[in-house]
Amino acid sequence: MSDDRKTSETPKKQIELTPIHDFASKLLQPEILPQLREYVEWQTTVRPDVGTPTGELQVPDFAPVSINLDLTTACNYACDHCVDMDILNLPIRYDHDKLLASLKMMRERGLRSVIVIGGGEPTTYKFFSDTIRFMKDLGLQVSIVSNGSGMKRIAEIADRLDEQDWVRLSLDSGTDPTFQAMHKPKRKITLESICEQVPGIKDINPRFPIGFSFIVTWKGAFINDSKIVENLGEMVQATELAKNNRFDYIAIKPFLTRAEANNAEIVDLKETDDHFDKVIVRIREMVDQAKKHETDSFKVYETTNLKMLENRSASNYMHQPQTCHMQFFRQVLSPLGMYNCPVYRNQNHGRVGNLNAYADEASYDDTRKNTAKLIDSFNATEQCKEVTCLYNHVNWFIEDLIHHPEKLAQLEGRAQKVPDYFL
User: How confident is the model at residue 331, as a pLDDT?
Assistant: First the structure.
């Protein structure tokens, strides 16, 4: 990487981050702060733009704090809006014992949370229940994102989840015809039959939240060379369905597509498009109606990406520092390999190792070194210039610490009422 890195000047216009996306605050939790300090101190010794590199400090000896875990590429749906369509149902699988060894190794080296998501439907993995229970035995925070087809398997492990864990179902519709058109399940299943199983799981264990995920789609949206089914008009129906079936919340987020240049996940609306205003106005109307159904026990959440669109600040979240620091604290483990970011799942320019990247000591050391090389060579200013990055704020926060290491001494641990290690 060249020495003329971007300065630590952050974008001026920012939105209020939702708590789950306030990653800087999460890194300041007392249990994680020492790792943040060590990372910043390491960067100050290797960055030519900060001072004279000494190379005295070795690559920090810790695994990611949080990972996305793709248990499988197999999926029993054929969603036309899926950003992972090109990797689904590939004949590549984990050696299960090595997967467990990887999780154990990472836990011993600082891993604190696992988001089971992406690449396929996790409940189709043969050892789904075994893996979830193993991770809970390790003391990890665990969350699960599912398409809803495997509710019986989620019920099997519900007793092991705690209040800081969560389950979110990707349902994206308020009526079954739209659900069928969007998700194209390969066996008979309905939107209502999925939702009707939530109360039973809440009866098993009411401690952890269950969410209804609603990706907003609109006319004119494209991915995989296909038109996307519009669901914008069903937001309120979806909210009512979630509330009536004891979901704890509905999360509303914008549709993502893939950038042509590097296959990154990006929002499929441009602030300069004539279509933009009409879509945003209609989304706002629907969200306002949905919020009328909120109670003390049921919430309607607008995700950070949706807020970016609404206040026209999305372009500021595309203004990335040259170095993506979060690739050291959060990675993606998939049967296809280990990657630096969910945006670059299965992209060679984001690869830090194979599927056994943390399975033993030698692999762990190699993966740390590969990650360090990628931190130096991966130019987020260019690679992520179209990405409305949820890690934008925390990357600039860390960049500022590297340029002003005296601020490290001023950092204090900030405990959260319920610790949240998901990154």
Answer: 97
